[in-house]
Amino acid sequence: MRLVLLGAPGAGKGTQAKKLIEKYGIPQISTGDILRKAVTDGTPLGKEAKSYMDKGELVPDNVVIGLVKERISQDDCKKGYILDGFPRNTAQAETLDKVLDSMRASLDVALSVDIDKDILMKRLTGRRTCKSCQQMYNIYFSPPKKERVCDKCGGELFQRDDDKEDTIKRRLDVYDASTSPLIDYYRKKGILKSVKGVGSIDEIFNKVCSVLEGK
Ligand code: AMP
């Protein structure tokens, strides 16, 4: 199954993708994760990407398209994959279609996880990550027992640069302007499915599975 996950930042795409990996045995390809790793590793790609990411802007298309092309050609993607955070605009979606055509493949489903803006803001501004073990918390929905301290390892919790309020506003604006038109793009292709991203992680996952299995 070749699947694209659509939804605003904070809609829970990454969390659902992790559960889909377990269930379907196909890899998740998150361009955000690949770029963040490049930033942490201080590679030339990371250096180029960081300034865009810190501002909540999209990294240039040619950079991310190159990353995705290389990743989907790897052996573990033969049975399919979950694209999370890519494509982010129509140009990326069109290029992806062309790349897949040249590989004699096509997407099976574009799954949109829909959620209200006010919940999104709390999910994003409330997010804290452990500096040591990367465990994630949310000060509104799943706070640590002790403020700013990781329950698991005692490490210090911090707020990702791109989770700060100004950046989040910009990321949501970019989503509205550039990414949300993809919902229509895939609807016109007849492969759009959607679920409401409310409820517990497992409740949402059950809805995701029902939609994917056509129940
Ligand atoms: P994410 O974790 O998917 O929200 O991505 C974090 C940041 O990485 C975004 O705000 C962008 O700056 C960058 N990014 C991730 N995926 C893409 C993409 N497909 N195109 C351009 N920029 C991206």
Q: What is this structure's SSE topology?
A:
Elements lengths: L1 E5 L6 H12 L3 E3 H11 L2 H12 L5 H12 L8 E4 L5 H13 L6 E6 L2 H9 L1 E4 L5 E3 L18 E2 L6 H15 L1 H8 L3 E5 L4 H12 L3
Helix pairs in contact: 1-9, 2-3
The chain binds adenosine monophosphate (AMP).
The site of adenosine monophosphate has 17 residues, from helix 2 and helix 3.
Describe what this molecule looks like in 3D.
With 215 residues, this protein is of the alpha/beta class. It has a single domain, classed as Rossmann fold, CATH 3.40.50.300. It is built from 9 helices and 8 strands. The protein has helices spanning 13-24, 31-41, 44-55, 61-72, 90-102, 117-125, 165-179, 181-188, 201-212, and strands at residues 2-6, 28-30, 81-84, 109-114, 127-130, 136-138, 157-158, 192-196. A 5-stranded parallel beta sheet has the order 2-3-1-4-8, sandwiched between helices. Helix 2 (31-41) packs across helix 3. The longest helix has 15 residues, at 165-179. It is globular, with a radius of gyration of 17 Å. The model has no long low-confidence stretch (mean pLDDT 93). Bound molecules: adenosine monophosphate. The site of adenosine monophosphate (AMP) has 17 residues, from helix 2 and helix 3.
